[in-house]
Amino acid sequence: MTARPAAMAKLPKKDRKALARELARIERERQERRRRRNRRLGWAGAGTAVVAAGVVAALAVQASVRAGQIGPLNMESDGIVLGGDGSAVTAGRTGALDPGDSPIATAVDRTSGVLDLVLYLDYRSPEAAAFWSANGAAVEEWVTAGYATLELHPLALADGADGAEGDYSLRAAGALACVADTAPDSALSVHDALLAAQPDLDEDGLDDDDLVALVQNAGVTDETVAGCVTSGSFTDWAREATDRAAQAVPFDVGAVTTSPVLLVGGQEYTGALDDPDALTAFIEQVSTQLADEAAAAEAAASPSPTASADPGATADPTP
Predict the structure, then answer these.
(1) Could you tell me if 103 and 76 are in contact, meaning their C-beta atoms sit under 8 angstroms apart?
(2) pLDDT in tens, 82-93
(3) Domain ranges, residue 53
(4) Is the pTM here over 0.90, yes or no?
(5) Is residue 312 one of the residues assigned to a domain?
């Protein structure tokens, strides 16, 4: 049996009953407040659980979307094609590569006199920076004048190689893809800026804020591009494009696993990367070869001339 409090035992019976009723009322109210508090906590806990479940579900959906994310617009070949009209460089427009699809090789007409240049590169690669430092100005002149097109394929090959830290190659390739997706005509300017920054990179490369600043300083101030860069919207695509290039590319080189790789009219340039004269000589060689092939194809397609009539023959007198 529970002992009564001493003060209560000294009260008259009538008062003790009144006090007991009052204490019981207070206890009931306390219990009711406790039950209400527990219900609120239960609701809050349930709400927290729902929110947590929602966050997990959202992250799962986001991961699923990213895993199956389409590629950037204007890079259906895994590269962006740039051409000129004599005064400015613009990008070719294409759709985006759907998840699981293979790149669609750019259609080229090598009888047109416009030479197609295709450049695979990693923006973390010192060799790529050296190549562009020696040859970039000339290539841009040819493209601007309309003598050649340039197809840029950003890759992520250097991350983790030779002690390289972080994922800068991946993020830089993704940054160019962000530009191609939203501001494609500025892709060449951003390409220039990424390679110009290469010699000064530390072991981790540029962070996302510095990448955004680089893109903006190159003339792309669209906030959509900045958000794309900082969120890494196309880093998954860049990884997949790198894997695809390592398996096969639509040219005779078979696969690309180094940076840079330049194809001129479908033929790989194997000369010195920092020798403009060697590159110019190779381009002239390929151009001459393609011109000869085009002339031969045109001659083969032309109808053979009919045998001329014998000038000494007389006309058939038959009416």
Answers:
(1) yes
(2) 999 999 999 999
(3) 16-68
(4) no
(5) no
